[in-house]
């Protein structure tokens, strides 16, 4: 097998062709990983997709890494064990405050905002044969799968379900595994917090009849009053099962970068992701929200200087006190 060694000048020329500007790559890593979540979930599909895209465009080895989700990603990026990652606003806030269960007391302030991804809806799915068609139908002691331990779903969904008066047995696992357990009758319900369509739910739809359960107005209102979420509707065309939009709640997701990464490296990576939304949507439909105008959905993390530079050059107005190191 023959390997081609590129000179620094050749790399600079290649980067100019793909990104529109030359880079001297001083201090850039030779490779990078993006902390995602378990296979079968949106984080893994979306994160692996943009990791591969950035790697291809910038000529660096990189890819997605299976992790426990947002809480672990905050820890991995904070320590530099992963260059990039993905998190939701709730786990990000808890991590910065020092209440991340992975490292209680450690304020994870070295994980910086990189770009907005999408909203994570909280959605409930059951087999149609179970007769469970609403939250009130969930029987006492129901076996509910909440995703990987420490994920956004596992952190917040059990609290939400408890607030709605449901008593249940808590189960954890990867999205694909939980979908299989539901189909095999080992679970009664799966409660996922993930970008839609959730691959595991889409796969279930192909194999069996499912009920995608929406919140009532009263249930939604109670959750909005109690948790750091926003109102959301899962569009009817998201799943073949849905005949109309389904009432839900959601939490925003952001890509994150280790704050010590070179400014021009992060700038270049953000440029690859944000400059062509159609290319991102081809990776995952949830990327329809990976848009410049959603920069203001981050009110929790300091921005990486390279990311802030890209957004401010393109019409955002990120304040200096929200930029790391300023």
Strand and helix layout:
Blueprint: H1 8-19, E1 31-35, H2 42-58, E2 61-65, H3 70-79, E3 84-88, H4 89-97, E4 111-127, E5 142-145, H5 152-163, E6 168-171, H6 175-183, E7 189-193, H7 199-207, E8 210-213, H8 217-226, E9 230-234, E10 246-258, H9 263-274, H10 277-283, H11 305-313
Parallel strand pairs: 1-2, 1-3, 5-6, 5-7
Antiparallel strand pairs: 3-10, 4-7, 4-8, 4-10, 9-10
Helix pairs in contact: 2-9, 6-7, 9-11
Please explain how this structure is put together:
By secondary structure, the chain is of the alpha/beta class. It is 36% helix and 21% strand. Strands 1, 2, 3, 4, 5, 6, 7, 8, 9 and 10 form a 10-stranded mixed sheet that branches. It folds into 2 domains: 8-118 and 253-322, D-Maltodextrin-Binding Protein, domain 2, CATH 3.40.190.10; 120-251, Periplasmic binding protein-like II (D-Maltodextrin-Binding Protein, domain 2), CATH 3.40.190. Strand 1, helix 2 (42-58) and strand 2 (61-65) form a beta-alpha-beta unit. Helix 2 packs across helix 9 (263-274), helix 6 runs parallel beside helix 7 and helix 9 (263-274) packs across helix 11. Keywords: Signal. It holds the Pfam family NMT1_3. Residues 1-22 form the signal peptide. This is TAXI family TRAP transporter solute-binding subunit.
TL;DR?
The chain is an alpha/beta fold and 326 residues long.
Number of helices: 11
Q: Oligomerization state of this entry?
A: single chain
Q: What is the overall silhouette?
A: globular
Mean pLDDT: 91
Beta-strand residue fraction: 15-25%
- Relative helix content: 25-40%
